């Protein structure tokens, strides 16, 4: 086996030192001053080697006094530190979390400390977020259960209100009874939307045609539009069957058309279209409404985000969830002339083959 010269070995070690993805530093035991730091140290802390060499971590404010004291104590007692979690400060003052290891080495005849640290700030953040999401989903499930249970007593109350409200004794309070009933209906609508959002069971998809689902719904959408004195059109393209859940798609189309209709003045029109574009089937719902201001665009789909006095802010959150369970992408174009929501559904492989052969 070939042996390296001392020079060559030093060069290799130096390369490894700088190429390491961990922060590495060598400091003297006697006064704690840095002698050498690697590139990752410079990049992570924001200090250049020139700025730190000859100074201590405490004077640079990288470690506070108590951390430094704890590190010295551990080193004196054990001679080595393994994965000790510490927080350190960058040059710009931001705090990071590191897993810190250190041991005493001989560096050109002097007793020094070799410190190695892994920046685990992001990791800790993701761990925390993951935990939070888990808790949120648990809370969501609990809330869904409670929502469900609240409905039964509400139905009873609504029934009695209706009964009492029709009695001649309460004729004078008729409008109050109607208000109470409509408030209960609103609460019920919120629970319905929330439950469809929180429902956790996997969506069952079956091959079927999007146009058929929309056609079945059409009378309902038409009635919605006509009572508001608005126009509605459905331009059906020739599209292949898709893997769909009928109930969910109906819900999605209803939510999007209702939003569109609600955004428009009287006599304006809403157009639903289906067509093939590339390897996708597109469902587009275009309104001539007020549009969505840019600052609201990234809030769309956040549960309970609404700009309407009597909105629930759950309609779009449900749509996004349904799109996700269908592997569909949602695209939004909006300006002061109106808004277009486009849903891009993937075409199943088998249908793609048939589509191509039909074209030839
Ligand atoms: P809601 O309709 O109950 O307010 P949604 O989740 O359906 O809740 O919609 C959230 C918000 O997004 C609406 O309050 C509205 O500000 C905005 N929005 C959604 N669709 C449209 C649209 N087609 N045109 C204008 N604004 C829209
Ligand atoms: Mg809505």
What does this structure look like?
This protein has 360 residues and is α+β, with helices and mostly antiparallel strands. It folds into three domains: 6-119, PAS domain (Beta-Lactamase), CATH 3.30.450.20; 124-198; 206-359, Heat Shock Protein 90. Helix content is 48%, strand content 24%. It has helices at 6-19, 39-45, 49-52, 65-78, 121-165, 174-198, 210-227, 246-263, 294-297, 315-325, 349-359; strands spanning 23-28, 34-37, 80-89, 95-107, 110-119, 206-208, 231-236, 242-244, 269-277, 280-286, 329-335, 338-346. The chain has a five-stranded antiparallel sheet, with helices on both faces. Strands 7-9-10-12-11 form a five-stranded mixed sheet. Strand 9 (269-277) and strand 10 (280-286) form a beta hairpin. The structure holds adenosine-5'-diphosphate (ADP) and magnesium ion.
